[in-house]
Amino acid sequence: MVVAISCALAVIVLKIFAHNVFLWANYINKYLKLPYSNSILPIIGIVLTVFVVKRFLDGSIEKGSSNILYAVARKGGIVPRKQMYAQILTSSLTVGLGGSAGLESPIVITGAAFGSNFAQKYKLSQKDRILLLACGVSAGIGAAFNAPIAGVLFAIEVVLTDVTISAFIPIMISAATGSLVSQMILSDDILLNFKGEQNFDFHNTPYYILLGLLAGFVSVHHARTFRKVEHYFNHFSKKPYRKAIFGATMLAGLIFLFPTLFGEGYESIKTLSSSNPESLLENTLLEKYMSNEWILLIFIGVIALVKSVATGITLGSGGNGGNFAPSLFVGSYLGFFVSKSIELLGISSSLPVVNFTIVGMAGILSGLFHAPLTAIFLIGEITGGYNLMIPLMIVSSVSFAVSKRFEKHSMDVKALADKGDVFTSNKDLNILQSINSLNLIDTDIQTITLQSNLENLVELLSSKKQTIYPVIDENAALIGLIDFEKIRPIIFNSFQVKYTPIKDVVELPDVSIDFDESIESIMQKFETSQKSILPVIKFGKFYGFLSKIAILEAYRKKLKEIVIE
């Protein structure tokens, strides 16, 4: 409960700040007649974020909820203390001042940091530390959306890979507490919710299946485009301010053309699901075409595809935020686009556009994060009922299936997979991946050259315990290996020792290990080669030996630590 209350208060600060800045920007546009002035705010926000990170946060900040998965899989649930305040400070500047990203990822990391550091403070076991981390995550989602069930499911479906029934109780208490505190303080205007009654007509099932298919493909497009845009800004890694100004200016241009890209975008989602969605064209270059439904439809469709670019620019240029809110934003726009297109084309005149707008959010959320249960119950809770449960299940499951077909990992896990730190539901593999294989490499190895002779090798065998000797050239590149067990008959024959050249007993290595190879790949090589020791190569040179026994011993110690705790 303490973790949940702490996290809920952080959510309240973030939400109130972001909402008030949005209202202030709209006030300037509408009443002071300064159109598009909100394009300037994201530049200020991103530059300030970079300044704060460099000046007060040691020049770096971990972005994205993938860091929580990494902390659970590799660090035993330990999250740095600075994450308790760093995420709040930087994301409020970025998203609060109009950066096109979401606050939920920073909220989730903050909640995880509260849980982890409370556990560290009171010296709880690793198991309880990870559980308390999950409690912070569930409280964050519960408070951000007033959706405690979604908070519980997100913590279990996304963060925890192994959960017992007993773990549900503290996670549920945290989610309920976070949601309660948020509900007591935050108004309905700030929270994303829909009060209208939604009903499901089974005749529309084919159209919901179509929406699910499109949501899956759009999820793949969003994830890939976001990564490409974010990676593009890696070229500016040594010039953070230049990167911030360049990226923020690009973002300002997009917001100038599409003002609804400003901030989280929840207000535009509410507008889209209202009776006058054409009001989205106010203060845009297309304002005079507000009465033209086709112009509105094209405007909505373009924004749904451009949002990934805007979010990639926001985070890639130095801002802080996440993709949770953008996924809901894109989903609502896609749902509106599909239903309105069917209506304008005359295919069906009775489609409930509001329902498709709402259900579309679950489709993209499920496709991006591979979390269909979270998507279903989150949308169910923020709509105030479960009348749309069947279309939510259809769209979420179809979108998940399509996205999974083209993207093996979810958006968060993909970031870890690219670094070789894949986070999986396989608990044994997670323990194995927590082992640093570099620490297990034996570099104190005696090497020989082709110019040596077997007499020299016999002397080495008599004075050292080493039984496998690498043969290297003048550049330290590995030529082959000499295994004592295989040349034993020669070693004990003095005549052969004297007249057998080294090159006659050298065996070319069938398999070798790269210095930076993943532990999973290393174990696979041990399995296929049936070797107990393999040579390690670093930058083309022999570096040392890695033993399978050493890895298994390290695994046993890790497993013992977890069991004891």
TrEMBL record:
In the bilayer, the protein is annotated as: Multi-pass membrane protein
Q: Which residues form the signal peptide?
A: none
The entry's keywords: Chloride, Chloride channel, Ion channel, Ion transport, Membrane, Transmembrane, Transmembrane helix, Transport
Question: Looking at the keywords, is Isomerase present?
Answer: no
Q: Membrane-spanning residues where?
A: 34-53, 130-156, 168-186, 207-224, 244-262, 294-318, 324-342, 354-379, 385-402
Q: A Pfam family name for this chain?
A: Voltage_CLC
Organismal lineage? Bacteria, Pseudomonadati, Bacteroidota, Flavobacteriia, Flavobacteriales
Q: What is this protein called?
A: Chloride channel protein
Kindly list the places in or outside the cell where this protein is found, as annotated in its UniProt entry. Membrane
User: Where's it mainly located?
Assistant: membrane
Identify the domain of life. Bacteria
Name the species this protein comes from.
Flavobacterium hankyongi
